[in-house]
Amino acid sequence: MANATRAADGARGRRRTTVLGTALGGCALVAAATVPAAAHPAGHGHELTYVSLGDSYTSGPLIPRQVNAECGRSDQNYPSLLASWRGVKSFRDVSCAGATTNEMWQAQGGNAAQLDALDRNTGLVTVQIGGNDVGFGSIISTCARLGAQEPAGNPCERSYKAGGYDQLALNVLRTAPKIDQVLRAVHRHAPHARVLLVGYPDLLPDDGLGCFPAVPFAAKDFPYLRDTEKRLNLMLRTVAAWNRVEYVDTYGPTVAHDMCKAPADRWIEPLRPAAPAAPAHPNARGEDAMARAVLDRLGHGRGRG
């Protein structure tokens, strides 16, 4: 039944791909993408049941204290911080490192499909997914390898555009209907929940200036990779608006704390981390910043309320 439902969702999602692609290309929908709170707003404290879905940017691999080694899940990741600050009645974090949109419906190792954590009593859902569908891991390894060969040029950009089109831009577009499908499934599994789609934080300098060899990408590839992440976040914002889901911007609040910054200032660790965190992932301060961005979107300011 789950596969049949997903197949039907997929067919509807494919019919929406052209519309989504048009919206992404023109940015018209994003310009007006302020989405009102859900019709059944999440409760507070003892009234709230909260479920977190996501990938490694949610789970927080290597950040102490790890509570699920298989998924690289920390009890200091942003969902755990948010649950603690709000004093929720019931909290389930099923985020898992390596998750793609497929893992919303299928088991990942010993971990059940993430959507299985939702039910009609769920009051709040955060979702952060899509980076692995676009290919974060392979992009980083490819660009680091090419950057070492030509540190002053843009070998990564040329490689991804060698076919006459931008492969990474195409990957983002192909991921849009998958995100659309996930959000509709979340609404179906948790029809009374307030749903927030969480974007990705600022990984590279927003001004496009590189920091080779600390981050071993070629100098002229930094702007290309920065723009690719912005394109991904733009797509997520657009699909969230399409589904009347609230989008959480974590890029803006983390600008100037990217992996090129000094250890005291960075919230994203470089490929050789100095703090406990996975390479090219948020450290504990980065998870804290994302938690505060979600808290802001929920309407409770920047304090621990």
Q: How would you characterize this protein structure?
A:
The chain is an alpha/beta fold and 305 residues long. It has a domain of 194 residues: Rossmann fold. Strands 4-1-5-6-7 form a five-stranded parallel sheet, with helices on both faces. The chain has a two-stranded antiparallel ribbon with strand order 2-3. α1 crosses α8 and α8 runs parallel beside α9. The C terminus is likely disordered.
Order of helices and strands: HHEHEEHEEHHHHEHEH
Strand content: 5-15%
* Strands, count: 7
Radius of gyration: 19 Å
Low-confidence stretches: 26-43, 300-305
CATH topology of the domain at 40-132 and 171-203 and 231-298: Rossmann fold
Structural class: alpha/beta
Cα distance spanning the termini: 41 Å
CATH superfamily of the domain at 40-132 and 171-203 and 231-298: SGNH hydrolase
Q: What's the level 1 CATH class of the domain at 40-132 and 171-203 and 231-298?
A: Alpha Beta
Number of helices: 10
